Predict the 3D structure of the following.
Amino acid sequence: MIFSSKLGEIGGQTVLKKISDAKPELMSKKGAANFWHFYPAGTSYNCILHFTQLMKSKEFKRFDMGSEDLNLKRYGKVKPPLYNLDEIKGFNISLICGSGDLLASPLDYNWLHT
């Protein structure tokens, strides 16, 4: 067991279920220990906020600065512009998804792939 109590193990799996895997019990104990050792890492509050904005708007656009004035100063527009995926050239991009992964589902994969 990677948690100090059964309650901690149940709580840890609940958090994992909310933020990534639909079935956290399938993760090995070593994998879960690794996850909790580094979580949260590799991102910032603004990255999480931007991800939330993207999910709510269902548009692939730049970070919304929170006010029309700040957006105007940064982008020259009151709303953040959409990303132009046609401008991404010169390197390969891999798309990876899993049927039980809440962050990279087949539905999202198919949407991005088209």
Q: What stands out?
A: The two ends are 42 Å apart (CA to CA). Residues 6-19 form the longest helix (14 residues). The helical segments are 6-19, 29-38, 45-57, 68-75, 106-113.
